[in-house]
Design brief:
With 165 residues, the protein is mostly helical. 56% of the residues lie in helices and 4% in strands. Strands 1-2 form a two-stranded antiparallel sheet.
Amino acid sequence: MSIFNKKSEPRIDIEQIPARAPVVAALHPTPAAPSQRKAYGIADAILLMRSLPVDQNVDLVVQVIRATLASMNVKVGDIIEDAVRKEKATEAGISALHGKVAELERELEARRQDILGLEADLKETTAVKERLELSEGIATPLPADALVETPAPVNGQFGSYQHQP
């Protein structure tokens, strides 16, 4: 092996090169299926109405809307039908939410009743505990030297026992 030997070029096998798509296909794409135009509905009419000054000249606004819809071959009856469907769906959604709110209110009332019951139980438990603590303090026998008889008063009352610390 000599220093001046020429290295051999790597050999490329043509079969190893991946095939490419023809250039003609990239220049002339296949036509896509004709897109279906979405029907003009109440949502589109609402957007159109929002873009117009409806509070200024109502007659002019109505004329503009009719001309715009007519130029797009849109039937006002179709928009009204879509509006009726949307109203029914919206009313159903409102009704469902009212039902959920009523259910949550019933649950809330039940929890409030639970709280009232627990508060009453706590009050009763505390009262009984305090009475037991009080009776525990009274029932504790005092040492014998802690009780001293006091002399009878002059007015004829009996003597009493008092605790002396």
